Amino acid sequence: MSGLSITGYFPFKRMKILYQNIHHEDASSALLRMTPDLRYTPLCHQCGDAAATIHSKGHPRFIRDLNMANAQVFLQVDCRKIWCNRCDGVRVEKLDFADASVRVTRRLARYIYELCKKLTVKDVAEHLDLDPKTVKAIDKSFLEESFGQDSLDNLRVLMIDEIAVHKGHRYMTVVADFFTGRVVWMGQDRNKKTLDAFFKNLTKEQKRSIEAVAMDMWEPFINRVRHYLPRAQIVFDFFHVVQGFGRVIDQVRRSEYAKAKGQNRDVLKDSRYLLLKNEENLTDEQRPRLAQLLEVNKTLASVYILKDQLKMLYYWSDRTKAQQTLDDWCEMAGQIDHPAVKAFIKRLRFFEYGILNHADYPIGTSMLEGINNKIKVIKRKAYGFHDDHYFILKVKQACAA
Ligand SMILES: [Zn+2]
Q: 0.90 exceeded by the pTM?
């Protein structure tokens, strides 16, 4: 007779395994019949108190457990209903290895959660032969436990930015901790009301601890930050400023192209890339083309130099020097007669406080780019992401890793 026993693989307290059935020729499923160990008083699943009396017996529950070898394992547990004094009613007895309303054991649920960190819900569902809805619900409940509560204490410097969801037709706003990169909060849209939902959750003290916020020059966000954090310094992100000027360069290039004739026109053709890319990233073939372009077109040469000089606005840790550099830049740019450049100068002047603040708080939102990339990966794995809350939990999980 074999000494092999499988009972050791089911170390469930307060339970006795009565027998096991291996089904099908290929042993692709197994049923373990279990019964409560009568030496223990049953507990209420809701409050955990010991039962006052047993109400009724023989309520079978079928619970899926981890696979064994090739077999899907099902536990058939004959549960009891009890009278609970604290709950003042009839309740199902508590099982140590499975939650009351879940059809899988806690250890299978944990396994599903771990798999969902790497695989799509659909993959996990197929792998375990479960309904995708079940897999998603389990993943979500674990995520809720770990990331459901926004942790809002000890925030000193925040980054706020928008992310495009669904090919840019919809936006979400992300608030992250500058020092840790942790996603603190996410919400729908990027309008004036969006950040209300975040700030309203903060206590007075939590608000007071926030010294600075890095963001884009985006009025709805600026407005709300000023409203809720009147003492916090707003710092406009350098790369957003450069990006804004990139659009200016492109408009100047187009106007110049329209004006150009003959050979100069050929030089300007397809030059967008040359002007917007960082010089060090140009190929050996592109570099002489850029030089030629700047040679034949003085206006483009000027905006190109201005683009390079923009980074000097973010160079100083001394406000006076930063102010001087900004004034110089605007004066230089003012010599270019183009509406897009004029509009940019006006905007820069209007928002200059948030550029000068960079001298005191050298912060930006570029770390959110990394978060954005993680979000793209999550979107690719999308299942059930019409459920925004689930999506947000997944993002928080990915960024905490
Ligand atoms: Zn109870």
A: no
